Amino acid sequence: MAQGSGEVATNDAVTDLVSDWSAEKEVFKVHWGKAMMWIFLLSDTFIFTSFLTGYMKVRISSTVPWPNASEIFALSFGGDPIPLILIAIMTFVLITSSGTMALAVNYGYRNERVKTALLLFVTAGFGLLFVGMQAFEWTKLIAEEGVRPWGNPFGAAQFGASFFMITGFHGAHVSGGVIYLTYVAFGVLNGRYEKKGYDIVEIAGLYWHFVDLVWVFIFAFFYLW
Amino acid sequence: MATKEEGQQHPLSIYIWIWVLLFVFSTASYMVDYYQFQGYLRWNLILIFMMLKAGFIVAIFMHMAWERLALITAILLPPLALLVLIGMMSIEGDYTYLARAEFFGVDEAPVVEHH
Hints:
The complex is a heterodimer.
Chain A: H1 13-22, H2 32-61, H3 69-72, H4 85-109, H5 113-144, H6 158-189, H7 199-224
Helix pairs in contact in A: 2-6, 2-7, 4-5, 4-7, 5-6, 6-7
Chain B: H1 12-34, H2 39-61, H3 69-76, H4 81-104
């Protein structure tokens, strides 16, 4: 629909929705890369939900008690083991990285190149720290506790398969994100986006926040439930 | 395009606030486990803190709150189909459990406590 003044003619969001889809032109009035990233993340949502639903199904079906995550992921710093502490620290690391990412997007749109790049490097650094802690967690579980995809000493055999599948896929996403952010950070530093604009930082940010978002659900359903 | 929106630009303070809130909610959900709340209280608290965190991340950090309805509906409505999958699998899970209990017996834990 033609809008003579060039401004949004109405504040009615539903009218906008209809005209956006019916106007035989671009529907999403955002950077094309941002729309594509959102659609990718939508498909990723289906993948992760399928994993979590599969986990729910085998957990409900099991006639053997489900292993107690609170005890399995406890860690001792000299004294009594603190329940789930490693996972709590990993959660805080990821949230911290989400915060620095949000700031990077903000400084990107202000064209503050060095600050943006620096915040992106910090974000990627926290991502690396997260993956490192996950590697430690996997090593401990496999080598010391004897958890395998087909069985474990704590209870229901499906625990291992669910754990490795879900956290493994998430960890792969974090690792991919670290590479992606590092690439974007160097680009920002070298002025690669001076002409194109800093939408790329927001797009990379969407991916990174999504990785944090998935962890929110994994933390709730796998570790706390 | 004249109507093309500029990149998302919001005051820094809103990000800092959400950041703090995410820390608070994460600590709270960790406390649910630390103090070993059990049963419906535990599950409800976990779900509440989870939804709050997810909502703030999507709305503020991912800027969904400021997007046009065309993008919001295109991204947020399709996942509702997943609720059907979750519902069906939970029914199927109960059925599998009952069939196993019936034919193979239950390993020590009482029937109602299989979660």
